[in-house]
Design a protein that fits this description.
CATH topology of one domain: Amidase signature (AS) enzymes
Strand order of the largest sheet: 1-3-2-4-6-5-10-11-9-7-8
CATH superfamily of one domain: Amidase signature (AS) domain
Oligomer: single chain
Bound molecules: glutamine
CATH architecture of one domain: Alpha-Beta Complex
Largest sheet: 11 strands, mixed
Helix content: 25-40%
Mean pLDDT: 97
Distance between the termini: 10 Å
């Protein structure tokens, strides 16, 4: 199989037209994972019994009721998102044996749309990282070059979709963890507007930034997944009651007059191959009638610093719950409660989570709160105001998703500050609570995928989806698969 047949839309069509049963589709996905996952380490575990039972139920119901928009579509779920009855590790030893007592709203809604969850994907511990190397279960690898990272923290989801193990996977994006791995692996990755998709059942990292988003082969598939998940959830008070538009209908291919803002000043020093692919992508959109404008995001250079203050502060608070008392790992052999908590946390958290807890605790501490946390909150407002200003003159802001293509495993793992810079183009939209996506825009001369990032106004996923899908019509880089897929 190739091309359309491997997309969520193609799989659904095959099921609806009676060309394949859900059971056969599910079986094929499980076989494909068994065959391809070994060297990639993208999938941590499959739940064959649950998946095949759901597929059988879909087959029994076939023809009796309208098929959902994701009917019979196999989906992989990042392992920091809960699926009832299954282990959810968030990439951490602390949760190695944690069995989720309920299902995340996003997953429940995908299943209600007919999707079949087949397994869980590798990720950096508590979604902290840009390379998947901070997973307690070993890194995932990039299917385009096994010596390289698939990106992070949703690297397993992106690697799995790129390797065609499933047409769709969920990730979570705090500072770029859906977009960056999608870009590194040649997939589409969509971070919805903050509040668009429920975080209920997502293991919390940084609650004012976390969003669940889809990783897919095509823009249409990502839009279909978003449509299934979006909307108010009484279980997450930060979800919005903004109407959920018809995203499929919005993708008309028409971008005439659409104004794309490019913060050209931010592109100094980026990789040449990324620059060339990005430039060519703008040309394609220009030839479709989009207008390219320069925008200045004055405080963009502060976004990384702000993000790593706020995200670590929130993480230090969210991760306080892993104390060995209520759930998760509990260290043995301590003399008293305090000793047990100390040992549990020392043994349970990996180095990056520990670093962030320490940093976050520091910036929230009484003597430093004003200098770091409070100041970062003020600068976050400035970063957001820059975007709001820019959106007075343009409809979309375009940037490469990352300044470099996928780096080598081991290259940055001992240099956290350089690793943090991998997020330089993605954290801005996160801080400003904007929707943003990454769509494949070609390859570097070395054959590594490059992502085009498009950010839109709050709750205007329609425009970025329309522009990305129009671009995809002319380029269709998603049709090129890594070898072995
Ligand atoms: N790479 C960023 C970080 O390490 C973003 C992570 C994310 O979006 N979950 O925090």
């Amino acid at each position: 199989m190739s091309g359309e047949a491997l997309t969520a839309a193609g799989i659904r069509a095959a099921f609806v037209n009676g060309e394949a049963t859900a059971s056969a589709i599910c079986r094929a996905a499980l076989d494909c994972i068994a065959e391809r996952n070994g060297p990639l380490g993208a999938v941590l575990r499959v739940d064959e019994a649950r998946a095949m039972a759901r597929a059988a139920a879909l087959d029994r119901a076939a023809g009796t009721s309208g098929a959902g928009p994701l009917a019979a579509v196999p989906v992989l779920v990042k392992d920091n998102i809960c699926v009832e009855g299954g282990v959810t590790t968030a990439g951490s030893r602390l949760l190695e044996r944690f069995v989720a007592p309920y299902t995340a709203t996003a997953v429940e809604r995908l299943e209600r749309s007919g999707a079949i969850v087949v397994g869980k994907t590798n990720c950096d511990e508590f979604a902290m990282g840009s390379s998947n190397e901070h997973s307690a279960f070993g890194p995932a690898r990039n299917p385009w070059d096994l010596s390289r990272t698939p990106g992070g923290s949703s690297g397993g989801s992106a690697a799995a979709v790129a390797a065609r193990m499933a047409p769709l996977a969920l990730g979570s994006d705090t500072g770029g963890s859906v977009r960056q791995p999608a870009g590194f692996c040649g997939c589409v990755g969509l971070r919805p507007t903050y509040g668009r998709v429920s975080r209920y059942g997502l293991v919390a990292f940084s609650s004012s930034l976390d969003q669940i988003g889809p990783i897919a082969l095509t823009v249409r598939d990502a839009a279909a997944a978003l449509g299934a998940m979006a909307g108010l959830d009484p279980r997450d008070a930060t979800t919005s009651d903004a109407p959920v538009p018809d995203w499929a209908g919005a993708m008309t291919g028409d971008v005439r007059g659409c104004r794309l803002g490019v913060p050209a000043r931010l592109l100094d020093g980026i990789d040449d191959g990324v620059r060339a692919a990005f430039g060519a992508a703008l040309e394609v959109l220009h030839s479709r009638g989009a207008l390219i404008r320069d925008v200045s995001l004055e405080h963009a250079s502060l976004a990384i610093a702000v993000y790593y203050v706020l995200a670590t502060a929130e993480a230090s608070s969210n991760l306080a719950r892993y104390d060995g008392v209520r759930y998760g790992y509990r260290a043995a052999g301590a003399a008293d409660l305090r000793g047990m908590i100390e040992r549990t946390r020392t043994e349970g958290f990996g180095p990056e989570a520990t670093r962030r807890i320490l940093l976050g605790t520091f910036v929230l501490s009484a003597g430093h709160y004003d200098a770091y946390y409070a100041k970062a909150q003020r600068v976050r407002a400035l970063v957001a105001a820059d975007f709001a200003d820019a959106f007075r003159d343009v409809d979309v802001i375009a940037l490469p998703t990352s300044p470099t293509p996928a780096f080598r495993l081991g290259e940055l793992v001992d240099d956290p500050l350089s690793m943090y810079l991998a997020d330089v183009f993605t954290v801005g939209a996160s801080l400003a609570r904007l929707p943003a996506l990454s769509v494949p825009c070609g390859f570097t001369p070395a054959g590594l995928p490059v992502g085009l990032q498009l950010a839109g106004r709050p709750f205007d996923e329609s425009t970025i989806l329309r522009v990305a899908e129009a671009y995809e019509r002319d380029t269709a880089f998603w049709r090129v698969a890594p070898s072995g897929a």
